[in-house]
Amino acid sequence: MPKFSIIIPVYNVEKYLEKCLDSVVEQTYQNYEVIIVCDKCSDNSETIVDKYVKKYPKFSKIYREKTGLSQARNLGVDAAVGEYLLFLDGDDYFNIGLLEVLNNNLDDTPDLIRFQVTDIVGSQKITHPEKEFKTTTGIEAFNKIFKYHYIENAWSYCYNANFYKKNNFKFMVGCIAEDYGLIPLIIAKAKRVKSLSYIGYNYVIRENSLINNNDYKKKIKKMDDMLRQAVFLKEQLKDIPNNDLIITFINNSLIYYSTRLEYQDFKKYRKILKENKCFEHLHGGNIKVRIKNFLIKTNAYFFYHCLVR
């Protein structure tokens, strides 16, 4: 049985894919499998995938059209037989020591291990240093992770496969911001979580990536998808004690994203957020957050909106 199952969704990433796959081939720890979930591509991505699958026995391919990222990840998890799961996007890449470092930190059989991420923006590398912490409960871990730069990104964690599959965790299909709708729940349900100072993942921020996409319809879809996932998350979290900070994160994320919309849409979603009591659990530890929340809760948002744009 492989120690790690690495799940890589692939869709039109030919420019980045070989570097991504090579970062797995070159790992200093070699007990792993790679499951590539390949959508129908209009570039040469699938040809590259086939080359690696043919050359390396550890690599396998699932071909499925129109999956989307959520379903691709779900399919990869279903096919995985490793003891631990990792997600790697086809335009990103691992540092070659990641699996070895993770393997050296499995003595207490954690449900979840967090590691650190470098942003790759052109030739620039941007790090977000975090203090590592020893094994603790999921709720206590979230109280620490809440302060970090990346919180809910699926690729910044290693998951115990038995824990993951026993809880039947699934990314919500057809959604933008699918990590937001699942990872907080995974952290909350974990009994043993640790965080490492090791930088294991390189997140390539592309000009045409979703995060930089100026398609306004996608921004509206993301807001609607986040609302739908927030309802699901809160329902799943209601029986977990001391979940206040996770609820705060869910609400703050919705409020923050709503401020990125045009003013008329912001007003519409503010009403929905109020109806869902999203302003009742706000994080007020930072004065800037307090000021922003005050502006959001009042019509003064219009002036705030003008100032920051």
What key attributes describe this structure?
single chain, 309 residues, 2 domains, ten-stranded mixed beta sheet, globular, disordered C terminus
Low-confidence stretches: 296-309
C-alpha geometry = globular
The mean pLDDT is 90
CATH homologous superfamily identity of the largest domain: Spore Coat Polysaccharide Biosynthesis Protein SpsA, Chain A
Task: Assign a percent range to the helix content.
Answer: 40-55%
CATH topology value of the largest domain = Spore Coat Polysaccharide Biosynthesis Protein SpsA, Chain A
Number of domains: 2
Q: For the record, give the distance between the C-alpha atoms at the N and C termini, rounded to a whole number.
A: 53 Å
Q: What does the largest sheet look like? A: 10 strands, mixed
DSSP strand tally: 10
| Tally of alpha and pi helices | 12
Order of helices and strands: EHEHEHEEHEEEHEHHEHHHHH
**The first-level CATH class name of the largest domain:** Alpha Beta
Under the CATH scheme, the architecture of the largest domain is Alpha-Beta Complex
Structural class: alpha/beta
> Which range does the strand content fall in?
15-25%
Radius of gyration equals 20 Å
Please give a structural write-up.
With 309 residues, the protein is of the alpha/beta class. It folds into two domains: 4-210, Spore Coat Polysaccharide Biosynthesis Protein SpsA, Chain A; 214-308, no CATH class. Helix content is 42%, strand content 19%. The protein contains twelve helices and ten strands. The chain has helices spanning 14-25, 45-55, 68-79, 98-103, 138-145, 161-166, 183-189, 216-237, 244-258, 263-275, 287-297, 301-308; strands at 4-10, 32-38, 59-63, 84-87, 93-94, 112-121, 124-127, 133-136, 157-160, 193-204. Strands 1, 2, 3, 4, 5, 6, 7, 8, 9 and 10 form a ten-stranded mixed beta sheet that branches.
